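Hello support,

Our group uses your service weekly, and this is the first time we've seen a run hang past the timeout. The protein is Small-conductance mechanosensitive channel. I'm not sure whether the cause is the sequence or the server load. Input pasted verbatim:
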Amino acid sequence: MSLKISVRRDPSGSIASVTRAINSDETRFPPGPSCVATSCAPTWFTGIANRIAVAQSGKTGGTPTDTSGAAPADEDDAAPETPAYLAGLDNPSIPLDELRLRLVPLTAAELATLAEAWQANARDATLAVVQRNLELREAGGAATDAQLAAREDLLDTREDIFERYSAVVTSLEAKGGDAEVIKSLRIYRTAISVEEAATLEPREIAVNVLAWLVSPEGGIDLAIRIAVVLAALLGLLIVARIVRAWSRRMFGRVPNLSKLLQGFLAMVVYWLVIAVGLMIVLAALGVNVTPLFALLGGASFIVAFAMQDTLGNLAAGLMIMINRPFDEGDYVTAAGVAGTVRKVSVVSTTVTTPDNQFIVIPNSKVWGDVIINTTASDTRRVDLVFGIGYEDSIEEAQETLENVLAQHPKIMKDPAPVIRVNELGASSVNFIVRPWVRAEDYWDVYWDLTRQVKEVFDERGLTIPFPQTEMRIKGDSKSTETFAPAE
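Update from on-call engineer: The timeout came from a worker crash unrelated to the input. Re-ran successfully.
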């Protein structure tokens, strides 16, 4: 639709007439159905013409020209002042989305006038609700379902008016309206709800609660939202588990990536899927998630200050996962504890001792102490010491030890075992025996050699001395006697 306004002036410069041309067969003016443009236009067209006339009269000092062609009327019989906004914007039946769209071009002054009109609508709707409540109280238990239904209709109508009222006030605030006026308008809206709730009788409260529970916009809508959130959480858990398993397989294909780091990255992916999915579900339900990020940002500082030790463990756990001093299944000695690593989380390391004790060590203690990884290599050397008496043959003992090591199936040929006389002790000649074995065979070889060497030495008459002490007493004729050895 296009509108053309023509203004004709008389010789003195005043407006003689105003004509309009509307190039459209039909248009729609809110609210209500379509109508012929020339029959709907006069209200707001006359407002435009009057504004032009007022502007002209302000320049020339004259009076506005009547654009309708009618004779001037007396001040007492003058028509009501045309609203400062488009006609129909204060109609309670206007759709909310359309109202918000038509509020866009209005100025703060126009919105202030419109807000007063909607406040009047809210007042009239509240008067109708109050009147209905009084009638129901007079009826008491004899109130019919039709009366109760009529009251619910009035409440729904008022709620719709409140929504449009709030939209106008919000637009007024956005365009720099008077802060005191905006505050007063909002207080009016809140005061109605508070005072109305304070004056309800127990029966009315019960009726309101029951009506809210069965209302599609109340309890039913809340139940649907809760069911959607619960179903979404269940679905997110399932999807997150699937994604975690898939990501673990993908991380397992990355070379030189420890199992600890693979597990940590898979856990990060798991929680990211849940967090992102939950945000999407809340946004789909109409929940504004933006304040959540601000809340998390403010809470993170407090949490970080209160959990300094835990964050230290977290940092140490990340260092362990990145530097990989050990992996799951390794036998380590750390923080004074020796055992097999079972699990490393972001805050602690769990090890199992040989006697099957589970020990949880904070990561800060593990990373801050010396770490001995016994199973880091595929092979290990078994260090043993065997002693013979000074009267025994060193060559025979050497040959005996070599034969014992050569017959054991778990001792590696390369590198070759080392058998050497290492020390002349207080009571024995000590041999060091150092064969190489696979890491998993260490203890089997250690225990086997200890037993076998003792048995073979006994067979060949080689003694394994033990500490002896001789005590002599001066002046005693029996001082040459040897007493029982002391261990």
